[in-house]
Write a structure and sequence with these properties.
Elements (H helix, E strand, L loop, with lengths): L19 H22 L1 E2 L1 H5 L1 H10 L6 E5 L5 H6 L37 H15 L5 E6 L6 H7 L8 E7 L10 H10 L2 H16 L4 H20 L3 H4 L3 E7 L3 H12 L5 E6 L7 H5 L6 E2 L19 H15 L3 E5 L9 H6 L4 E3 L4 H13 L3 E7 H4 L3 H9 L6 E5 L16 H7 L3 E3 L4 H11 L8 E4 L7 H4 L8 E5 L6 E6 L2 H13 L5 E6 L1 E3 L3 H7 L4 E9 L4 H11 L5 E7 L9 H8 L3 H15 L1
Parallel strand pairs: 2-3, 3-4, 4-6, 5-6, 8-9, 8-10, 10-11, 11-13, 12-13, 15-16, 15-18, 18-19
Antiparallel strand pairs: 1-7, 12-17, 14-16
């Protein structure tokens, strides 16, 4: 690929040496580079294609890391990474030992903060901006926020705390036209006027003058401000940003680099806080992504000519679609069932329920806290809400689970997608915490290991025989062929593998069971007989399970969950309370900062692959002898 200008950019300062014409050419080269590389590695495509000119303009005007750019979410940071010395790293984007798909200060001094979850940028930027002011440090702080993040509450909480921050700029990257664009000559004129220093200086001079006029000054200033607000309401239909203390500019064309750069330069010379509204074209420069940006939000490897659907949309055969189809069927038979998701209708397989039962389907946007408390409200009135959220995002609603759902034992079902290890996205998107934090407050948790178990247990969790909060969790993608062959016994736990005279048992749940089975078979070849138990109901334990496990001298428990507070710790405590005095080996995730890698690579790095589990038993045997 021929990229003569891009190849000369090794740091942001190199951008400032380019002419305006060269800058436009550079944007075209960046777009071509992203298409070529992301098609080979996978990653977030459409949002990055739309943010090329905006990111280039920011780096032409700002000087990072003195000025800091906080992304929300990191889905739009690829151009930023290209311009900050990481071009060669794109060959291993989101792969083991490669660069992350999100900003991360451990990767570059130009990354202000990690950004894997949404609507956090404004709160972070306010904190960084205040720290700069308190320490007397120079530099502007920019929060770059996509319109989708404005469905989450943290944006508004942060907006309520901007007073006095003259070093803050918030940029709304509106790529869905969710806020109507102003049209007409007067709108264009005012947008231009508001970005000039003459407008700002005149406004400040009038304010200062009126503040100095005794008696009549303050009332006159109030009259003028109220009159301005009336004009703004008539023209812009909303004055929320200005009413909260921002100087509002826009909307502007976010894919016009020269115009956008000029606007940013004018804003940069004026004290804030500022709010810049730009409209970008998601998927810009690649016709399939422009016409269907949702399908190209996050992609696996694909052919640039014969492109493939977005993996964020659940494939035809996956745990998500099995869940979605079962829920849809149950919803037809039980009119109390409602489905709630947080901006992940297709990813969670809820498109079926949404189509068949639209009045009982709720997509609340990027607002997991609201989703859970909303569900509690529905449940308090006799409905049966099913909250479908990825494990990594469910963390955001932990207080609501404790306070609004669990205290009153509301009849809420948590359906937890992407449970366990998740490839590519690394430490920000792992589903390794929910078994620990749900079991900690006594919520029943089920973790099917194949489709048959999911089809069996979900209707039971939705039936009247169960009351109070409960959860069912399942991994991303399809079932394991090795685990599918076991089908579903209908029991809360199963003994899958039996070895003659076994005094050692290995216990696990979900996908990790496959590694445990492999380890047991490896040990049998070394004349170390081990039995294997698979849990479906992973918490709380039945007395029968504790009784059966207590027969063994050695218990190894392995799980794709944090070791501290995980299900393995609960099992050891239950065994000890029952009087068991054997040897207990617990294998879970000790270091939660997991690499962006494939699931097998993550298992190897955490010691949860079959070979490491086998070695754990060997080591114990060696120590015993």
């Amino acid at each position: 690929m021929n990229s003569p200008l891009l190849e000369k950019i090794s740091q942001p300062s190199d951008l400032k040496k380019l002419s305006s014409q060269q800058t436009v050419q550079l944007c075209a080269e960046i777009r071509e580079f992203l298409l070529d590389n992301v098609s080979k590695t996978g990653g977030h495509l459409a949002s990055n294609l739309g943010a090329v000119e905006l990111t280039v303009a920011l780096h032409r005007v700002l000087t990072t890391p003195t000025d800091e750019i906080v992304f929300d979410v990191g889905h739009q940071c690829y151009t930023h990474k290209l311009l900050t010395g990481r071009r060669e790293g794109f060959a291993k984007l989101r792969q083991l030992d490669g660069i992350s798909g999100f900003p991360n200060p451990n990767e570059s001094e130009h990354d202000a903060f990690i950004a894997g979850h949404g609507n956090t940028a404004l709160s972070l930027a306010v904190g960084i901006a205040w720290a700069k002011k308190l320490r007397g440090e120079p530099g502007q702080v920019v929060a770059l926020i996509g319109d989708g993040a404005f469905t989450g509450g943290m944006v508004y909480e942060g907006m309520n705390n901007i007073g006095g921050l003259d070093n803050l700029l918030v940029i709304l990257n509106d790529n869905k036209m969710s806020i109507s664009k102003n049209v007409g000559a007067l709108s264009r004129y005012l947008s231009h006027l508001r970005t000039t220093s003459r407008y700002y200086d005149a406004k400040e001079n009038v304010r200062s003058f009126l503040d100095g006029v005794p008696v009549i000054g303050p009332p006159l200033k109030s009259v003028i401000q109220n009159s301005k607000a009336m004009v703004r309401r008539a023209m812009y239909h909303s004055t929320m940003f200005e009413d909260m203390g921002f100087h509002y500019y826009g909307p502007f064309d976010g894919n016009n680099e020269p115009e956008l750069e000029g606007i940013l330069r004018d804003i940069h010379r004026q004290p804030g806080p500022h709010f810049l509204h730009v409209v970008t074209k998601k998927g810009k420069g690649y016709a399939p992504a422009e016409s269907n940006p949702g399908n190209f939000h996050g992609v696996s490897t694909f052919d640039l000519v014969n492109s493939i659907p977005d993996p964020e949309v659940a494939p035809k055969e996956s745990f998500s679609t099995v869940f979605g189809n079962v829920l849809n069927k149950e919803g037809a038979e039980n009119q109390k069932i409602c489905a709630i998701t947080a901006a992940m209708k297709y990813g969670t397989g809820l498109q079926f329920f949404a189509h068949t039962h639209p009045k009982r389907f709720f997509d609340v946007g990027m607002a997991e806290q609201h989703a859970v408390t909303f569900a509690a409200g529905l449940a308090s009135q006799g409905m049966l809400p099913v909250v479908c959220i990825y494990s990594t995002f469910l963390q955001r609603s932990y207080d609501q689970i404790i306070h609004d759902v669990n205290l009153l034992k509301e009849n809420v079902v948590l359906a937890i997608d992407r449970a366990g290890f998740v490839p590519a996205d690394g430490e920000t998107h792992q589903g390794i915490f929910d078994p620990a934090f749900l079991s900690q407050v006594g919520i029943s948790v089920y973790s099917p290991s194949n489709y048959a178990e999911l089809r069996h247990w979900l209707p039971i969790l939705l039936s009247d025989e169960m009351q109070g909060p409960r959860a069912i969790r399942y991994p991303r993608g399809g079932e394991s062929a090795a685990l599918a062959q076991f089908g579903c016994s209908g029991r809360e736990y199963d003994q899958l593998y039996t070895a003659p005279d076994a005094k050692t048992v290995m216990v696990s749940y979900a996908d990790e069971v496959e590694d445990v089975l492999t380890a047991a078979k490896l040990l049998s070849k070394e004349n170390v007989p081990c039995d294997v138990y698979k849990l479906v109901k992973i918490y709380p334990f039945t007395p029968e399970l504790i009784s059966e496990i207590s027969r063994y001298d050695v218990v190894l428990f392995a799980e794709e969950c944090v070791a501290c507070g995980g299900i393995g710790e609960h099992l050891e405590m239950a065994l000890r309370k029952a009087g068991w005095q054997g040897a207990y080996i617990h294998r879970g995730v000790e270091d939660v900062r997991l690499p962006h890698a494939t699931v097998p690579q993550i298992k190897q790095s955490t010691g949860l692959d079959a070979e490491h589990l086998t070695q754990a038993i060997r080591t114990w045997k060696g120590a015993e002898s």
